[in-house]
Specification:
By secondary structure, this protein is α/β, with parallel strands linked by helices. It has 13 helices and 16 strands. The protein is 34% helix and 26% strand. Bound molecules: L-homoserine (HSE). The site of L-homoserine has 7 residues, from helix 6.
């Protein structure tokens, strides 16, 4: 029998609060979540009013006390910034504790020092939450894509600038106006420097490059240009020429067999992308990372790049990795619970008639008075709500009618179709498809 893994959480901002909420409600999540317990939470200000779900008896304003507590197995750092985060992480490592962090600034600058310390102390430091918010990208680079020679990473890894550029492109608005509104709406920080000047993206690019190409990146040498000086006329001209402009972070391996060292070309800059490129379709605060390698070709990771829920999801994934490692190490003949599906309970599939969805239906009918009325009546009697019903060009006396329904119970849809099929005015049901 293994004991629960006891967490000391450093920081209770947006992401920290998200982590607490996941850990305290394990129902419906991976069974390993219930193997995790919160022991202490370090906050800046004990007096601040907080969500009632937060266990206030766990709060302390002394983060070192959390790190040094011998009853804490794993330190989760979501304070952000360089100090005291770096010192706390290194202290936890020196005490033989694994660390989970979402801190891109500290990992981009001190990743090497931290990784060496972790190796020397035989502990893990996991960083899924540091890049791409909720998008799983760190673990794929470290594990799932391990059979590939990676060639290039190009991504939109800053949501704030992507939101600003999306609005500038859609509305023809200028940078200052969109930034001001984004700040009012809470999409941009009151000090937007790290985001709009590309510094946040450069931190994340350094981390991704280190993982993808297996080397240390000197963060200060990453060529970085932000979006502050981008004019709406540049976006307009680019649009007219068939391009969108995105703040791209790009890392490309230039190494060939003759190079002993891995040579990388890195840059963060506003970049024109053809409108049909998958990265051009990423809008608003979303992030996307395109990874190119051999033999996989191209694979794109897309999703919410920030926010309480998404980043907490990534942090908890790392917590589960540490928990599963410990359980496997401590247990006798125990399979890694993240690799084996043995702990999952049986799932019961509902009958097709119980599925709830929208539908598309194309009918070939007589072109005569009352046909649409009869079809509509059958849907109504079966409690299926029509979103749209359109008659397209009819030839001679034959009409083609297309129906899109609202979401409904599939059994009612199937009953409607059977009744519609039997109408004398209906020649055939030409097509029935699902609709999202
Ligand atoms: N400020 C970042 C962004 C989110 O706008 O994407 C945290 O990494």
């Amino acid at each position: 029998m293994t004991s629960k893994i006891r967490i000391g959480l450093l920081g209770l901002g947006t992401v920290g609060t998200g982590v607490v909420k996941i850990v305290l409600s394990p129902e419906g999540r991976h069974p390993l979540v219930s193997e995790v317990s919160l022991k202490k939470i370090a906050v800046k200000d004990l007096k601040r009013s907080r969500d009632k779900e937060i266990p206030s008896h766990l709060l302390t304003d002394d983060p070192m006390n959390v790190v040094e507590d011998p009853d804490i197995d794993l330190v989760v750092e979501v304070i952000g910034g360089i100090e005291p985060a770096r010192t706390l992480i290194l202290k936890a490592i020196s005490l033989g504790k694994s660390v989970v962090t979402a801190n891109k600034a500290v990992i981009a600058r001190y990743g090497d020092e931290i990784a060496n310390a972790a190796k020397a102390n035989n502990v893990y430091v996991l960083i899924e939450g540091a890049v791409g918010g909720g998008i799983p990208i760190v673990e794929p680079l470290k594990q799932s894509l391990g059979g590939n020679k990676l060639k290039k990473i190009s991504g939109i890894i800053n949501g704030t600038t992507n939101y600003i550029l999306s609005r500038m492109s859609l509305e023809g608005a200028n940078f200052d106006d969109v930034l001001e509104e984004a700040q009012k709406l809470g999409f941009a920080e009151s000090d937007p420097t790290a985001d709009v000047d590309g510094l946040d993206a450069a931190d994340k690019l350094s981390i991704l490059s280190g993982l993808a190409f297996g080397g240390t990146i000197e963060r200060s040498l990453v060529p970085t240009k932000g979006i502050r000086n981008l004019q709406s006329s540049d976006i307009e001209y680019a649009n007219e020429l068939g391009y969108d402009i995105k703040l791209l972070a790009i890392a490309e391996s230039l190494s060939d067999k003759s190079n002993k060292e891995t040579q990388l070309a890195l840059r963060v800059e506003p970049t024109l992308i053809e409108k049909n490129h998958p990265l051009a379709k990423v809008s608003g605060v979303n992030n996307a990372i395109l990874v190119e390698g051999s033999p996989i070709g191209e694979v794109m990771f897309y999703g919410p790049g920030a926010g309480a829920g998404p980043t907490a999801s990534a942090v908890v994934a790392d917590i589960l990795n540490i928990a599963s490692e410990r359980i496997t190490r401590e247990g006798k003949n125990c399979l890694n619970p993240l690799l084996s599906a043995s702990q999952w309970s049986k799932c019961v599939l509902v009958k097709p008639s119980e599925i709830i969805q929208k539908n598309y239906l194309r009918l070939i009918t007589n072109d005569s008075p009352g046909v649409i009325g009869k079809i509509g009546k059958i849907f109504g009697e079966n409690n299926v709500s029509i979103k749209s019903i359109v008659q397209f060009d009819s030839s001679e006396s034959v009409a083609e009618i297309v129906v899109i329904t609202h979401k409904g119970i599939q059994g009612q849809m199937m009953r409607s179709i059977e009744e519609i099929k039997n109408l004398s005015v209906v020649i055939k049901i030409a097509s029935h498809l699902g609709c999202l």
